[in-house]
Amino acid sequence: MTSELTGARTQLETSDGPLEVFSLPWLADGGIADVSRLPHTVKILLENLLRRAGSRDVAYDDVRSLARWPEPAANVAFMPGRVLMQDFTGVPAVVDLAAMRSAVARADGDPASINPLVPVDLVIDHSVQVDLFRSADAYEANIEWEYRRNGERYALLRWAQQAFDGLRVVPPGAGICHQVNLEHLGQVVSVRDGVAFPDTLMGTDSHTTMINGLGVLGWGVGGIEAEAAMLGEPTFLPQPDVVGVQVSGGLPAGTTATDLVLTLTQMLRAHGVVGRFVEFYGAGLSTLTIADRATLSNMCPEYGATAALFPVDDRTLEYLGFTGRGDLIDRVERYTKAQGLFRTDADPTPTFTETLDLDLTRIEPSMAGPRRPQDRVALPNVWDSFVDAFQRHLEPDPKPTDVGRFLNEGGNPDTSVEDKGWTEDVAPNGRDVGHGSVVIAAITSCTNTSNPSVMVGAGLLAKRAVDAGLESKPWVKTSLAPGSRVVTDYLDRAGLTPYLEKLGFNLVGFGCTTCIGNSGPLPDEVAKLIDDEKLNVVAVLSGNRNFEGRIHPQVRASYLASPPLVVAYALAGRINFDPTTEPLGEGTDGPVFLRDLWPSPQEVAEVIATAVTEDQFVQQYGRIWEGDDRWRALPTPTGPAYEWDPGSTYVREPPFFTDQAGGPVGDAEAEGTRVDGARILVKVGASITTDHISPAGAIRPDSPAGRYLIEHGVQQRDFNSYGARRGNHEVMMRGTFANVRLRNELAPE
User: Fold this and answer.
1) I want to staple 478 with a disulfide (CB 3.0 to 4.6 A). Which of 270, 504, 626, 744 is the partner?
2) pTM of the entire predicted model
């Protein structure tokens, strides 16, 4: 720190003892700037600079410049307090670190000297697939298959856990990284070497922003940025624009946080917040639980912002206690109040780049689809949205995300949408199924399973449905995949699990599953009928993305919905009706409507009050690092340098630190590394996603990556996915732009 800022270093008394703090209010006392009206987002970034002022990355003028926000300023050299990874993106990062160690060892150095310089948590959540469902054995069967497919990758991660200082690994079957981060890893205020500072992070997954709901600033980045942070390098951000969203009112009865986030996504996507920070303020925040807020922050990538912060307030402190982190409350409260980072309803409005209004009283029951998360639709209009999507674009459309282009790439599907149904001799169990039939209904994703109100709501709706004599339709692949083991604990304690299981929502795993496309195969007879009849069928899921083909390659339409609505559509088995006026099905006493099954807010609150306890969080997260017998039995290499297997098709040493070209490592002029006469191979249109560029889903046998695996003795049933193969650069090079939905405008045919 420079002498000009020496006075900013003060002490704060806490129950943990005195802690050093880099005081934001001192900036006004020191004559630099009054920062009291800055957005909380900017204050956190400012503290990040203030604490590091005088280092090679942060000059005193950088602090002065950002303190006078929104005046023009230099780039912000942000250094996160920690890094969060999931296994799809974490494995290649570990492979790179292991390659660095190998290079050091070859140079006769100490490989153990290579370690992350900031704490890293890696949660294995992306590899579980829904192979078995509607069975009491589904969880055990699916995790057994997960280990069979991914044992080699997991052995690498077990090695990394013991080899690297500062890297922790959450084994499979514990939950989804963002929900684990929200419920356990998040500290709100961190302490390192006696210094207290805001908990901040970068994660190798776009939905890292979920932690913003707890008042922790963080967002998703690419693997290179995350690895740079792990090695002590900051990320340089342009001076941020901060859009304030004023929240007022409260949610009406019959609506959920899911309805709210779909409305928010539609609103912000239309307004335009790409590359900007969003910050929520206003008295309406006090009506939203941390779980509600986390749902809104989770879908930040879908509305395009960098982050979506809810400032720390009394709700934050309550949640820390509720989730077994009561020991943090005193530190968090004292620090945030001392730094002007604690929100109350009486606070003056911060200075924002611009502001928008979000009136909670106007939220209505909604879904989003059939192909983009911002395409919110009220329940009465769901069928119309499906018809419109598949009738408007019968001709090829120049916009690459339009359904017309999607259908054109899929051969010659039948694009009519009338409910033609199937004949008795080909329909599953003789039931009528056709365009708009629901074939996947998945309670999945940290977006919603982190929220007890919607999970309990789904359980109560299931109970009433069973009591009324309803059943899920037999052609619907139903599944329950929470992001935390706490969820199944409280559903069991509330007595709701048997009713969900009766409707086919058996536990299939604790991981991302259907939300990221790991929905597993459809039953053979259903899959065959879809292909034979060229049907446009539907998935309904409580996830955060529904891009074309993402959920399942045979399912062209996907709708995002709250967990209770997922259950409701499993009962109906179709979307060609209005659930607000037409029955879901015929019960023992006649037609049963959605309104007959929907629980009241009071009923949900009563169950949560008795079934969700602090002890559940303490017990489940107290053993989160242990893993099961499968994890402990993995054959794991030992030693500081990884033992590469040249025959592996999962984990290969990358060439970055090997002298393949005859010159020094990194010499751009070395023979074989210089690129001359390059030509453009791919030209794409708008709305291209990372899924298009580097797919995480299935590997086709006729693709370059598929042919590579076959040539190396891998049978098609053992291909796994691109995401699981990211530790092998040979597969990923061949998989670039391999998404079947990508349209290369240089080769439109």
Assistant:
1) 504
2) 0.91
